[in-house]
Each structure stands twice: as structure tokens, then as C-alpha cells.
Amino acid sequence: MPAIDATDARLLQALGEDPRATVMALSQRLGLARNTVQARLARLESSGALAPFDHRVRPEALGYRLGAYVTVQVVQRSLADVGEALGQIPEVLEVTALSGVADLLVQVVAVDADDLWRITERVLAIPGVQRTDTALALRRLVDHRMGPLLSRAAE
User: Fold this and answer.
1) 113 and 83 inside one domain
2) I need a labelling partner for 135 at 20 to 30 A (CA). Which of 45, 54, 95, 104 fits?
3) What string of DSSP letters covers 92-132?
4) Is residue 153 a contact partner of residue 6, using CB atoms and an 8 Å limit?
């Protein structure tokens, strides 16, 4: 993934403020040539620097009002297989490998407590999973954000 320079950061800030802005509007706002904006956006997209659009959809809007984080201990040689199996569960939003006692941190969403029970049972049934521990997400205090880092990079 290429490094994001100050111009890229300004471009991403502008997109964050107006996600539906056209290339022409962005070029005018930033004082850049239209082709420059278009090329930079294409490079950012193709390099994976931009997350998929579905990251903007809130699970609550789809009826998943309960969020939880599940730490998973895994038989070490099964880590890749467990990760792949977790990716097959629609309610699993993200899986992160960790250092320490827990091997994986799994962000899940559920409709209600019974649904969360079903999901955790499905996680426990994956071959290679030794133990899980579930913590309910009570309230989001800071939304996922990149604005402060983009501001720093744009300077």
C-alpha cells in the first residue's frame, strides 16, 4: 500500500466532508487538475487505501442492534482455518489476530441476545476453536474516524 502524501490527505478529507463530490468539484475545491484528482483517486482505490463503501452502513439500520466482541483462543496450527470459517458467518464484521492470551478478536452483531447465543455457538463449533469470551458493546463513544490523522497528514 503506497504512502498517502499531503495532497492525497487533502483529497480524502474533501471526500470525507462530501462523499458524493464529483471529480470536477474536488479538483476545483483543492486547486488541482481534474486528471490529477482522477488519477490519485484511482491509485488510492486500486492500492486498497480506501475501505469498501459498505463500511459506512451501520448494522443497526439492518436490524442488528446488539454488538459484541468475542475473543477466541485457537489451536495455533488452525488459525488460518478458523479465520476462514469466521469469514463465512454473516454476523462477523471483522476478525483481528492478537498477541497475548486471546488469538483473535471478533466483532459480531446480533439481532438480540438469543441471536448472539446462536452466533457464539456457531463460533465454538468451528474446529480449532478452544475457548471464547464475549463482551457486549454497550455504547460507541468514539466512532471509527480518520479525520484527525488525515488533518495531520495534510499539513
Assistant:
1) yes
2) 54
3) EEEEEE-SSS-SEEEEEEESSHHHHHHHHHHHHTSTTEEEE
4) yes
CATH code of the domain containing 105: 3.30.70.920
Q: Which residue range forms the structural domain that includes residue 84? A: 59-137
pLDDT at 144: 87
State the pLDDT at residue 54.
80
Distance CA 95, CA 72 (A): 10
pTM across the whole model: 0.83
Supply the DSSP symbol for 154: H
- The CA angle 3-54-79, to the nearest 5 degrees, is 75
Q: Does residue 132 share a domain with residue 63?
A: yes
Other beta carbons within 10 angstroms of residue 123's beta carbon come to: 22
